[in-house]
Design a protein that fits this description.
The longest helix is centred in the last third of the chain and has 42 residues. Helix 6 packs across helix 7 and helix 25 crosses helix 28. About 7% of the residues have low confidence. The two termini are 48 Å apart. With 886 residues, the chain is an alpha+beta fold. The strands form nine sheets. It has a seven-stranded mixed beta sheet with strand order 2-3-1-4-5-7-6, with helices on both faces. It has a six-stranded antiparallel beta sheet with strand order 14-13-16-9-8-17, with no helix packed on it. Strands 23, 28, 29, 30, 31 and 32 form a six-stranded antiparallel beta sheet that branches.
Length: 886
């Protein structure tokens, strides 16, 4: 039989468990339909799940169709447990994405879709609750094709229409359809496997409508994977049964396993080998013990004590690091008289079962902290601790999970040389792209340091969560390169390089300019149109960013991102001003520069010098004994010469100095006196007719001043509600922040400027905002400045003695009163200024993501249109050939 592993994912309350129940019932795997609200669903076996009516833990069930053996994995739908869902994706052959037919497409549904695309999991879509009032098939299909993919195909269409819709998904399908007049099941199955087509089914899981058609698609439109003969398995879950036995849930991706087989792996850099005691095939809460399992199936084994979720065994590679990470942290307050270390040991068991449940032991203050995705997860954790360990814990005041990164390239040196030990490591630490995490490489010659020692350094770099020096938060977005190292032919041991590596990283962090990063939510707000302006203003006050809203009748959908610290309690405020009609969906998205870094540092009270577990000092040896050298003196004692880290040519230093000297006079520069800006503005909105600002202010009395303020506030809100948007781009900052443009600029700066202008022209054509691209020309003597129209954007070269940031500051000050203004720059000082003038800042990294997303959507549109055009042309050619034959 064909073997498949299929997962079901959805936003909470979409009917996912009900659909699982229906499929199991129709396949004959269960004899009676259970219901979530009746607390007798086959897969909701945990007491907490029955109590809350939601899926918290991933569960499996097996069912057999005519020619297909299916392992069904039901995943949590609530966003707080989305990390559990993500772990399951790595072992799926196919997924079913469930959508509610009575609601607009949820923000978390889009997040799940992005995860499915990231893991390249072929997907079927089931639109549920079509029997309820308000379900609208045409609306849902339109949303799916616009917000997920134009390749979503309605499977309820008549055969000819269905084939026509599928033929537009890929050139292969189109050519086959035009040649044969139909599409075979094998061709459709291949397109689904290649993520070229996403079948959409409509029905009601509760009434079993449409479920049979979905099962038939599993039978006819899927293919079994090909597996190697060598043993391989991907671990996706660690759990414990009622007797406390440790269970390793895995999917076999090669060969087979038998009871008493020896399995090998690596845990924290140390290799291990253990025998399998028992193999279980779970279906619901019951299991069947078997002697052997072949590739393509899911099983749980006992006897393995060192496996971890995401691990690859045998020929299987380990899963990539999860995309979703916890963003909130709380102190766990234990009951009086509780043993701290024993409690910590118990909590480590929960962390093993849910790796994204980070348990932190803070030695200096003797406190246990936990990192979670949200408050619902925290409530469930409290219940689990009471049930599993009999501890009635509480939680302290929550805060967000901050991270640290660096702003410049530095060399870090670690030396470890107590008596009869020796190792020295030199590392280059460089800022990475936002979201890149911590990455490693080596440029050290094997003539200098043997390859075996280099591999050991790489292992020690990867095995530890390195902490920053400002708040002790984990570091991220850093690339670390091994550039030099030294071992002793007699005295070096493996542990010596561990100590030298850790100290080298820490030494580099102490020397670098560190930055605090805070987490941002990607949010989706659905609310009545009349309350849209209030929501946009709230997000701006939070320091967040909104994209252009989409209007759907009396409602609007607003998307964007905002700091977690300001937004995680916003749902109650939204409910209040929308009178309960607003809905908020939050997904932990990106990390970016923290706007209140100094407050965060002060509140953390972290002292890097006192953190002896993460020391930057080195140990040297003289006269037969070791001695400690403070990190700021290590370069005087190190045995290898330091590599010269070339500083990148950066005109920003000179511009910053110029800004500091002239900032006092620039604010009074008049908008009307700037010919270039005035020309751009008047081309769009007509001539400016306004009195001088200072003269007007001198002649008003207090009451009139207040009236003017109110009037200006109303006008500002009205115009912003119309969402007329200006985008100002600091050209050279963006060029040197984006690697592709930076590479072009090394050879030809004019080509880099033109490339950026072309990118922005495409962006403007899609986003329909007013784009002003600003380049510095302030050092060109006698330069009067210039403005030109390039395609659909404006390009400004500043005049002599005027920097790009001063021009942008002046512009945001003037037009920010009436229009929505965004500024794209990598300049942190400039960002502070524009925020003070009411504009929204967009970092170079985030703006790059926006541009890439726009380009992707443009490509989808172009591809869809070109496919349609190609289809029409081929149809025309076919008709001509038919006529010629006649």
């Amino acid at each position: 039989m064909k073997k498949l592993v299929i997962g079901i994912t959805s936003h909470v309350d979409s009917g996912k468990t009900t659909l699982s129940e229906g499929m199991l019932y129709l396949s004959g795997s269960i004899g009676k339909l259970g219901r979530v609200d009746h607390k007798n669903a086959f897969l909701d076996t945990d007491a907490l799940e029955k109590e809350r009516g939601i899926t918290i833990f991933s569960k499996q069930a097996v069912m057999s169709l005519k020619n297909t053996y299916i392992t069904l994995l039901d995943t949590p739908g609530h966003v707080d447990f989305s990390s559990e869902t993500e772990r399951v994706l790595s072992v799926l052959d196919y997924a079913v994405l469930l959508v509610s037919g009575t609601d607009v497409l949820q923000g978390h549904t889009e997040t799940l879709w992005k995860l499915l695309r990231e893991y390249s999991v072929p997907a079927f879509i089931f639109v549920n609750k079509m029997d309820l009032l308000g379900a609208n098939k045409e609306r849902i299909m339109s949303e799916l094709q616009k917000r997920l993919s134009f390749k979503c195909v309605d499977m309820s269409l008549a055969e000819k229409q269905r084939f026509e819709a599928m033929s537009l998904c890929s050139e292969e399908l189109l050519e086959s359809y035009l040649e044969n007049g139909s599409l075979s099941k094998s061709e459709i199955a291949r397109a689904i496997d290649e993520n070229s087509c996403f079948p959409v089914f409509f029905g009601s899981a509760l009434k079993l409508e449409g479920v049979k058609e979905l099962l038939q698609a599993f039978e006819e439109l899927t293919t079994e994977r090909e597996y190697p003969k060598e043993f391989g398995a991907g671990v996706y879950k660690i759990a414990r049964d009622d007797q406390g036995s440790r269970l390793t849930f895995m999917k076999l991706t090669g060969g087979s396993i038998r009871v008493k087989d020896l399995v090998k792996g690596c845990f924290k850099g140390e290799e291990w080998s253990e025998k399998i005691d028992q193999i279980r095939i779970y279906s619901g809460e019951k299991f069947k013990a078997v002697d052997c399992v072949e590739a393509g199936k899911i099983c749980a084994v006992t006897g393995l004590s060192k496996t971890f979720a995401g691990e690859g065994l045998g020929v299987q590679n380990s899963a990539k690091p999860p995309l979703l990470t916890p963003v909130l942290t709380y102190q766990i307050i234990l009951p009086n008289g509780c043993n701290l270390l024993q409690a910590l040991k118990s909590f480590r068991i929960l962390e093993e079962e849910d790796p994204q449940l980070h348990i932190l032991w803070k030695e200096s203050i003797k406190e246990i902290h936990v990192q979670v995705m949200g408050k619902i997860q925290l409530e469930v954790l409290k219940s689990k601790i009471a049930e599993r360990f009999g501890l009635n814990v509480s939680f302290g005041r929550g805060s967000v999970v901050y991270k640290e990164t660096i702003a410049n390239s530095v060399e870090g040196v670690g030396h470890f040389e107590p008596l009869r030990h020796y190792a020295e490591v030199h590392l280059l630490l460089e800022p990475g792209e936002r979201g890149s995490g911590v990455t490693f490489s080596s440029l050290c010659s094997t003539d200098v340091l043997d390859l075996s020692w280099q591999r050991l350094v790489m292992t020690h770099l990867a095995e530890k969560e390195h902490l920053g020096v400002l708040t002790g938060s984990p570091v991220t977005d850093i690339h670390i390169t091994l550039i030099n190292g030294k071992a002793h032919p007699k005295h070096t041991e493996g542990g010596d390089f561990r100590q030298a590596t850790y100290r080298a990283v820490r030494h580099g962090l102490r020397r670098a300019n560190s930055i605090i990063l805070e987490p941002f939510y990607d949010f989706t707000i659905e609310l009545p149109t009349e309350t849209l302006g209030r929501a946009i203003t709230d997000i701006q006050v939070m320091g967040g960013h909104t994209f252009s809203p989409k209007h759907m009748g009396e409602y609007a959908v607003l998307k964007g991102y905002a700091p977690v610290s300001k937004m995680y309690d916003y749902s109650s405020e939204l409910a209040a001003f929308t009178k309960g009609r607003g809905r908020l969906s939050l997904v932990a998205g990106r990390y970016d520069v923290c706007a209140s870094a100094q407050d965060v540092i002060s509140e953390a009270g972290y002292d890097a010098d006192s953190d002896l577990e993460n020391t930057a000092d080195s140990v040297f040896c003289a006269h037969g004994s070791g001695f400690i050298v403070p990190w700021f003196e290590v370069e005087k004692y190190m045995h290898l010469s330091g590599k010269t880290v070339k500083k990148q040519a950066d005109e920003d230093d000179e511009k910053r100095a110029s800004f500091t000297k002239t900032s006092g006079s620039r604010a009074s520069s008049s908008f009307e006196d700037d010919a270039e800006l005035r020309a751009i503005f008047e081309r769009t909105y007509g001539a400016i007719k306004r009195k001088n600002f200072n003269e007007r202010r001198q002649d008003v009395v207090y009451l009139e001043e207040e009236k003017e303020k109110e009037k200006e506030k109303e006008n500002t809100q009205t115009i912003r509600d119309r969402l007329t948007e200006y985008l100002l781009v600091d050209g050279y900052n963006i060029i040197f922040a984006w690697d592709e443009l930076k590479a072009i600029a090394k050879d030809n700066m004019d080509a880099a400027r033109r490339a950026l202008a072309d990118i922005l022209s495409n962006y403007q054509g899609y986003k329909k905002c007013n784009v002003i691209l600003v380049f510095d020309a302030y050092r060109v003597k006698g330069n009067p400045g210039s403005a030109e129209r390039y395609h659909n954007i404006n390009i400004v070269f500043t005049k002599e003695a005027e920097t790009a940031d001063s021009y942008i500051e002046k512009t945001t000050y003037e037009i920010g009163k009436k229009y929505r203004v965004r500024v794209a720059t990598s300049d942190s000082l400039e960002q502070v200024i524009i925020l003070g003038h009411g504009a929204e800042r967009v970092s170079a990294g985030i703006f790059y993501s926006e541009v890439m997303e726009a380009n992707s959507e443009i490509r989808d549109i172009v591809q869809a249109n070109s496919m349609k055009l190609r289809g029409k042309n081929l149809v025309g050619e076919a008709l001509k050939r038919a006529q010629q034959k006649e």
